[in-house]
Amino acid sequence: MSLTPTGVSTHAIRQQLGDLLDVRAAGIQRREIENEQVRHRSRCRPRSMAGSRVATYAALWVGRRAAPAGPGRERPTVAPGDRQGHPFVRFCNALDSGSVRASDCSSHKEGTMQPTIGSKVKDKQATTWIPALQRLLYSGEQIIALSRTNLLRPMADGLTVTNARVIGFSGAYLKGGTTAIEVVADNIRDVSLQGRFAGRNCLIVGTCNGDELNFGDIPADDSPMVLAAVQRLASAGAPPDLHRAASDQARAAAETESAWNNVRVAGNQPNGKIWKTIREHAMAGEVAWFVVGAETTGGALAAFEDRCVIVKVGAMTSMMAGSFGGGRITTFPYGEITGIEYNAGMMSGVLEILTPSYQGSANKDYWRGTFKSLNSDSNNPWVPSNTLPLGKPIYQQALPLLNEMRAKIAETKRPTVVMNAPPPGVRSGGLADEIGKLAALRDQGVLSEQEFQAAKQAAIACATD
Question: What gap in Å lies between CA 362 and CA 387, rounded to an integer?
């Protein structure tokens, strides 16, 4: 047995060190077990949170009377970092102290709810956001809380909690009826504020299907109010009538999406950027008639009932069109189109929409402007707004659809003949003369046979009156 200079055996020292390591390992294992239990309790949190103090006070906060006085009725004006000064926190403290009674807050008349606006939302933003949001709400849906947020993907700078949903949005796209992210009340499993890479107060909403939705970084002064509003929404759920409105809207959206998925496409399948642009240029409830995809990086043509649109967007497509980073989007009403021209070589070709503004004065040649810049060469079919590079195989595939569009253009340009009855007491040249004039118009091609028969019947009816 060896001894250390102090007279203690090395065996005893090793035994003491082993005991210390065993204790440390046991402590680490115990902390890991405790952390796992906490995580398990968080995942298995019950659906209803109505029994918690925060959720109960949130219900009273949302349902308080619209009286001008009392804690929580004023717009939050809180010093930076002063969470205790937030109106919702003062409202909870007033309930705890008894200075405000719960019975004074429980009666709320439908239609009188005033949204609670976060301290970081400027007055100008609130007056712009609230009307735009109300146009997106279901019948009976109301805004409970409005706050700023900071979310990069999808981009959002505003957040609202209604009595049916949590919605993250970008103020710049609200007028177009677009929201960035949203979740309905019945799909909320839990909600929390967590520190993420994007910020310290990210609102994380867990859904019943296991997803976690990040609604962005909420300002610290407004986070208690937003968290309480979402917790109250999760415990109360959405009203039954809003369920029906949401299901009707979802059904209409699914039908529109199905119609867009079944749009006839000839040629190359357009990329996602082109599809998005085409849908943005469609009216509400409108679906494209057909789409012709041009050569690679050449763009696409989308036909609607009264117009066609040539779209050249995307990184490579816009660069080939001489507008890198932007694009060329041109709408041609059928009434203004004078012709559809196709010029082809051995394999390549160019489809050209002719209007009074875009005349087909010369054939487009792929190689004539090889040593010129894109925008200075009028012969480059990728650049002009009314041309589409279209190889012969793609043109043959698209020809039946283009013929349908030509027929629609001819129908739009056909003159409408209106037969006015002569004034009472004024005799016309006779029924035979009227029918003779109509027959002459038919022979000249002005009237079709159907239009001639309809006009003749109208003339006979006027003569017999």
Answer: 12
Say if CB 224 and CB 83 are below 8 A apart: yes
pTM (global) more than 0.70: no
Q: Look at the block and give the residue holding tokens 């090889």.
A: 370
Q: Does 310 lie in the same domain as 325? A: yes
Last residue of one domain, picked from the residues 246, 275, 296: 246
Which residues fall within 8 angstroms of residue 383, CB to CB, at 6 or more apart?
Answer: 320, 321, 322, 374, 375, 377
Shared domain for 38 and 174, answered yes or no, is no
Which CATH number is 306's domain given?
A: 2.30.29
Sheet bearing 307-313, strands edge to edge? 264-267, 290-293, 300-303, 307-313, 327-333
CA 313 – CA 330 distance, rounded (Å): 11
Per the domain annotation, does 425 fall within a domain? yes
Q: Whole-angstrom Cα distance, residue 34 to residue 268?
A: 58
Whether residues 363 and 328 fall in one domain: yes
Taking the C-alpha atoms of residue 458 and residue 258, their distance in angstroms, rounded to an integer, is 44
Longest dimension (CA), the chain: 142
> Residue 169 falls within a domain, yes or no?
yes
> Each residue of 66-119: pLDDT tens digit?
333 444 434 444 444 444 555 556 666 665 665 555 544 543 444 446 788 998
pLDDT in tens, 11-47: 565 566 555 555 555 566 666 666 655 554 444 444 3
- Whether residues 152 and 73 fall in one domain: yes
Range of the domain at 290: 263-413
